[in-house]
Amino acid sequence: MKRHIITTADGSKTIQIEEWNEQYHSVHGAIQEAYHVFIKHGLHHFNETYTNLKQPVSVLEIGFGTGLNAFITLLEAEQLHINIDYVGVEAYPVTRDEIQELNYPTALKADNKTDIFERLHTVIWGNKTEISMGFELTKQQKTFFEIDDKNTFDIIYFDAFGARVQPELWTEAIFQKMYDALKVNGVLVTYSAKGSVRRAMQAVGFKVEKLQGPPGKREMLRATKHSTT
What we know:
Layout: E1 3-7, E2 13-17, E3 22-23, H1 30-49, E4 57-62, H2 68-80, E5 84-89, H3 96-101, H4 104-107, H5 114-122, E6 129-132, E7 135-140, E8 153-158, H6 172-181, E9 182-190, H7 195-203, E10 207-212, E11 219-224
Parallel strand pairs: 4-5, 4-8, 5-7, 8-9
Antiparallel strand pairs: 1-2, 2-3, 6-7, 9-11, 10-11
Helix pairs in contact: 1-2, 6-7
């Protein structure tokens, strides 16, 4: 499918799939969405709620895509003085040319870390690699249906394409995999607030909260695993 780079409302860029009229991030602001959904209600929430848990904090990203969520998590982890073990799952990696067009280091006022952003994309798939001190990354090139981790992650960033274009990624079967992959007290955050998504999460055992959404969306969801059953 044909992809091209567009600029979102906060000045940060994202990739658009023309055939689906679908973007990797919100057109209302790629960076704003990432901070609101995944950092504020995911990483910060977990860090503030479970301050006594052992580090590193393990993060699974469903849809590694442009690397924006991973890059912001790396920047935030440095500020929070926490270590991160980050796993990004992506079936269709972005190209080198697309990466060169993304302006995230500049938009985040982190031009001094441009080489680190590029390293997120150039490290070998399947190998755990230290990207910077305290941040380790493993990229896995596979479909979400192939995820079979058990009690492994503290946080899941569920950033799949929307249910309008890929409804099969928002089913009980997928959320059962997410539930199984989380440790007890682990959290999953997503930009979606669809009733069918919330019910699918609840059906597999998640406790689900509706939260204020990022710019352009009224609500989002956060799901917590409270038991191993």
